Amino acid sequence: MRTTDWGDGGARRADAVVIGGGTVGGWCAWMLRQAGLERVVVVERSTLGRGASSRAAGMVRSQGGTPTAVQLGIWSRDFYLRQADELGVDSGFVAQGYFMPAFDTEAVRIGQARVAMQKGLGLHVDWLSASEAASVTPTLAPDAHLGGSYAPGDGWLDPPRNVLAYSIALHRAGVEVIERTEFTAIIFQAKLNRFASTLHEGVEVFCLGVAAPQAGDCGDVVAFLVPFDDDGEFARTLHTPILA
Ligand SMILES: Cc1cc2nc3c(=O)[nH]c(=O)nc-3n(C[C@H](O)[C@H](O)[C@H](O)COP(=O)(O)OP(=O)(O)OC[C@H]3O[C@@H](n4cnc5c(N)ncnc54)[C@H](O)[C@@H]3O)c2cc1C
Description:
By secondary structure, this protein is α/β, with parallel strands linked by helices. The protein is 33% helix and 17% strand.
């Protein structure tokens, strides 16, 4: 067990502190418990799911543009599929299929190369001509695009239900959720010096979203960062058993 102090006057102990109770932080904290960490704490400035996670459209797509995104996408979709059996709750995932149209010849070239890469990673995906796509999705105008990639296993989930699912999973797993508590050091302290000095060496800090790149200067603190780059792809520095 390691010690940290999040400003309530007394030192409190945790094996991992997750900042932000959105879908990323929520499921991350649950997985840390599954991985064997004893005390996992989620610090959320509002209430669980009050950020983007309850407002998203919920599209779930394994058809990423990089091998890492494809592997994570496949893993995530499989996780959604087995939730009901494993957790007794689920995020409402529906494998409705996902079509990504191309509108010019360059997009066709890039899209077909992407499909080849995705197939190599085991994703069930195909390139459909415009007329083939129309037979899969009759509402698509066949003359409005040049075909596209189609993965029948992709689909969508229900964002509010997903928040409910990880809220229940966190509770059952014994993760401590501290709501209405803002972790201001991460957001507002320039080089995070004060934040770093409040932690003992070796504390694991999961920093999600836009705050993550700032956390690189945590000194001796071991920080697992989950930054999002300009294209919305993520996990350049994420090291996870999922990808091992
Ligand atoms: C309109 C819309 C549609 C979308 N559609 C899709 C889609 O179809 N498919 C898809 O995959 N993605 C979609 N997204 C993106 C998706 O919602 C986000 O990528 C995802 O929800 C991010 O999850 P998160 O946990 O990182 O962030 P959030 O859900 O935003 O969670 C971050 C949490 O951190 C908390 N927080 C922030 N700062 C602090 C602090 N200092 N201290 C404590 N807590 C803090 C916030 O209150 C919040 O609860 C969409 C997003 C929007 C807005």
